[in-house]
Specification:
Chain A is an alpha+beta fold. Helices cover about 50% and strands about 20% of the residues of chain A. With about 300 residues, chain B is an alpha+beta fold. Chain B is about 70% helix and about 10% strand. In chain B, helix 1 crosses helix 10 and helix 2 crosses helix 7. The chains are: A alpha+beta (about 575), B alpha+beta (about 300).
């Protein structure tokens, strides 16, 4: 017996005890096959379910066409302190035009005095708190029941001309200012009243952001769209994709209009009094045209709204003299409709509250927009369009084809290089199969229905994501080359023990390499401004799928494939 | 294979000092390019900023009007230029600088009414500035995390610094080449730089692991690592060159195709980075490791 034959016998003798489990029983291969099958199922599920010739792949706006908006929520969260007695003194001196003295400050009450008198209406007008007034010897003493925090809130609200609400930050009271302010402007406002800003963030609270999102969603639905993805980016921006919409000007005007509706009544001349806000509207009808060719939106007030309207109207005698008092409707402080009440309406209101009204806007477009805003309600904060765009669908179709061609040619180019290096089909084929499988599995993850709490499934493939896939396949092939070279060190498949050790060594390098790609792109995912999230997700998922599923299976496949080659080689040797 | 012989000759005949010197000269030149750009550009930045960062509006429309006609038509708006570029088909590229909301709105309305199928991209100046900060933050975090990870992997100072230095060199070279070919920084190129940070250390990790953690003759280990590493880089380069060609020049062959800006940008930056990576891994990093191992050998 020659040495070769002895070796062969030894090899065969050890085979049964030391061999890898059969290919079909190897869990690495099983997981891989299941992942591919699952991915294909998800990708082609539309074909299976609805015999519709599509795939589950969702394309981004830059491939499918549409309009996008990037909106900044105008607001800030601040913590600040100020001397409440200074605020009261400063504000009431301005209001009353006379010197005042704050005589008492307690946790829920502030008392001040001034010479002369003033009507209660005037004293209550800044809204610092409910007042009780005592007049003696032409000297007035006013006690406001209020707190330090309420005073500051009201002060900011009055001076900034915007809503200011209480909120929490790290278990401490904070103020949310619902318009665009800067820290400097606040500080210069607070300095005269002995205050300063201790915390400033030019973002709104998560709740305000989410409320805004819900209302905006309703407004955009009014444009005839369903399922509009509105993605918050931090607490400061909202990113909106309007697939299939090619009317940027319209979309911008809907989003950038807060839609605050108010009805006021004319007292006399330019003097008007507030009646109600849009919240008091219960039901909004469809725009319709009247017999004079003018468009309007009918709406129904809630019972308390109707009562408020009647009370205010009767207060100024508008029900009896309707021609002297106009009813004025505002959208975001702009008059959209003003007219005196019809005699019949006035007479009816004299008897009982009337809840059915109509806002006559004249044009059809204005009526449609008003309807959208009345239905959806006002946005808690204004939105500023900080970025926007529109992509045509035809160009997207072309891009898809171009990228498909690029993908196929890229695979061929990679195959040629790999073929030149290894010149063995038994290496090249498993390599290309593994690489292709990685693409399929990534597409599978992307095609899953989106899950809110699972960010790494069901994302849209935009141009950047597709570039990400190609980049990942590039790194994937690299890792397969590392495994191959490590395992085949010396040119031949080693005995099973050494093979296993070498696979481990290869994986120690691959895991390190994959980890660096992961950490390099993680910031883009966690901090990213939205536009490149697809790229980050694709790359991260690609790395995880590659290291966790595809490459372990490859290590097994290459062994199986080369074992076959060895068997062939041995037979050839035996034939000699 | 001839490549084997080339690799052998290279390792046998090149002194570690030369291996280190050449890439360092390239690094200095790249830094010089960035410094020159910073010195000469009005913003004093090492790289030109694209419209995404400066703010502005770009509109692409299909029209038979000449650039001059378009310039006149939009003279009410801050129009910067009109480009008629073959790579975009029969389309004209109108570039505007930032304008106030009212004018922006009017511009959108005009485009909506007059040109169907227009592509519009508008970035506000403030958002652009926020994006700039974001980009700087992203690149720094990404690089820092990569560097920390490399230190954790190797736990020795010189080899870790060698890996980080060569990754740094790759990025600086890619950035300098962007200046040279006149590319500006966009979100796409930032993504490419991040990818480069994560990816360019692959071959360095392979090299360092093979040289430090395996037994065997040094030159032999370098040769084997180089064979694996060059195959890796070449396959990736091949895929990227195809991607670049199809996204940038396909219109020359198929006239209906057009340039895909973001894909072209990403592939260009990665190609530059990987070319630098060949130099930095197999000269700079290899040279440093050889010197380090020699010195360690002498000390032992």
């Amino acid at each position: 017996m020659n040495r070769k034959a002895m070796k062969r016998m030894a090899a065969r003798a050890t085979q049964p005890t030391e061999a890898e489990p059969q290919l079909k029983n190897d869990f690495r291969v099983l997981i891989w096959v299941l992942a591919i099958a699952g991915a294909l199922l998800v990708i082609f599920s539309p074909v299976l379910i609805s015999s519709d010739l599509g795939t589950g792949i969702k394309y981004g706006l830059d491939l499918d066409g549409g309009t996008w908006l990037q909106l900044q929520l105008q607001g800030a969260v601040v913590q600040a302190g100020a001397d409440e007695s200074k605020i009261i003194r400063q504000e009431y001196e301005r209001l009353l035009g006379t010197a005042i003295t704050v005589t008492d400050v307690s946790s829920n009450r502030i008392t001040f005095m001034f010479n002369g008198t003033a009507p209660k209406e005037t004293i209550d007008s800044p809204g610092y708190g409910s007042s009780s007034i005592n007049v003696s010897d032409n000297r007035t003493s006013v006690t406001l029941s209020t707190t330090k925090q309420q005073v500051l809130q009201k002060f900011l609200s009055n001076r900034l001309g915007t809503e200011v609400v209480f909120t929490q930050r790290r278990d401490e009271l904070a103020y949310e200012i619902r318009s665009n302010v800067t820290e400097e402007s606040l500080n210069s406002l607070l300095a005269p009243v002995g205050g300063k800003v201790t915390y400033f963030s030019d973002a709104v609270t998560a709740k305000t952001r989410d409320d805004t999102k819900v209302i905006l969603d309703r407004k955009l639905n009014g444009l005839g769209l369903k399922e509009i993805p509105i993605r918050p980016i931090g607490d400061k921006y909202l990113l909106i994709d309007l697939a299939g919409v090619y009317n940027l000007a319209e979309a911008e005007s809907i989003a950038a209009t807060p839609g605050k509706f108010e009805i006021r009544i004319q007292v006399e001349g330019n003097r008007t009094e507030h009646v109600l806000y849009g919240e008091q509207i219960q039901d909004v009808g469809v725009p319709k045209v009247n017999d004079r060719g003018s468009w309007g939106v009918p709406f129904t007030l809630k019972p308390e709204g109707a009562v408020a309207l009647r009370d205010t109207a009767m207060k100024y005698n508008a029900t009896k003299e309707p021609d002297k008092h106009e009813l004025i409707m505002y959208l975001d402080n702009m008059v959209i409709f003003n007219a005196t009440m019809a005699d019949s309406l006035a007479a009816q209101m004299q008897r009982a509250p009337v809840s059915d009204l109509e806002a006559n806007t004249g044009g059809k477009d204005a009526a449609t927009k008003l309807q959208i805003h009345l239905r959806a309600g006002a946005l808690p904060v204004s939105l500023k369009v900080v970025g926007s765009g529109q992509v045509s669908a035809t160009l997207g179709e072309q891009f898809k084809l171009q990228l498909l061609i690029a993908g196929i040619v890229a695979v061929i180019a990679v195959a040629i290089i790999v073929a030149l290096r290894y010149r063995r089909r038994r290496i090249i084929l498993p390599m290309l199969a593994t690489s292709t499988s990685e693409v399929i599995i990534i597409l599978g993850f992307a095609s899953l229905p989106p899950v809110a709490w699972l960010p790494f499934v069901g994302w849209q493939l935009d141009l950047a994501s597709i570039t990400g896939i190609i980049a990942v396949v590039g790194t994937g092939i690299d890792h397969l080359i590392i495994i191959t070279d490590e395992v085949l060190h010396g040119g031949r498949l080693p005995p099973i023990k050494i093979y296993r050790m070498r696979v481990l060594k290869a994986f120690s390098i691959i895991l390190m390499a994959a980890a660096t790609v992961f950490v390099a792109l993680a910031p883009l995912y966690f901090l990213g401004f939205g536009a490149l999230k697809g790229f980050a997700i694709t790359t991260i998922i690609g790395v995880v799928v590659g290291v966790g599923i595809a490459r372990p299976a490859y290590a097994r496949l290459i062994h199986e494939s080369l074992k076959g080659e060895m068997a062939v080689a041995e037979e050839e040797e035996a034939d000699e | 294979m001839d490549a084997d012989k080339l690799i052998n000759d290279y390792i046998d005949r090149t002194s570690p000092r030369l291996m280190v010197t050449l890439p360092l000269i390239v690094l200095l030149l790249s830094l010089g390019v960035l410094a020159f750009h910073a010195y000469t550009s009005p913003e004093n930045l090492p790289m030109a900023l694209g419209m995404e960062f400066t703010g502005g509006t770009v509109i692409t429309i299909d029209t038979d009007e000449t650039p001059q006609q378009l310039l006149n038509e939009f003279s009410d708006f801050p129009i910067v230029n009109v480009r008629e570029a073959k790579e975009y088909g029969n389309r004209k590229l109108l570039q505007f600088s930032t304008m106030d909301d009212a004018r922006q709105k009017r511009l959108n309305q005009i485009i909506d009414q007059k040109y169907s199928g227009a592509d519009i991209k508008h970035v506000g100046e403030i958002f652009g500035r926020a994006l700039q900060q974001e980009a700087v933050r992203l690149v720094s975090y990404s690089f820092l995390l990569m560097a920390i990870l490399v230190f954790l992997f190797f736990r020795t100072v010189v080899p870790s610094i060698a890996v980080i230095l060569s990754a740094f060199s790759d990025i600086v070279f890619a950035a300098a080449m962007m200046d040279v070919v006149g590319m500006s920084l966009s979100m796409g190129t930032v993504a490419a730089l991040l990818m480069l940070i994560g990816y360019s250390v692959d071959t360095d990790i392979l090299l360092t692991t093979r040289l430090l953690k395996r037994t065997g003759e040094l030159k032999m280990k370098i040769r084997e690592a180089m064979k694996t590493g060059l195959t890796m880089t070449l396959t990736t380069l091949a895929a990227l060159v195809v991607l670049f060609a199809v996204s940038t020049g396909a219109y020359l062959i198929v006239p209906s195709f057009s340039r895909i800006d973001i894909v072209s940008d990403i592939s260009t930056v990665l190609i530059f980075g990987l070319l630098a990576d060949i130099l930095n891994t197999w000269m700079l990093n290899t040279g440093i490791l050889r010197l380090y191992l020699q010195r360690r050998g002498e000390a032992a």
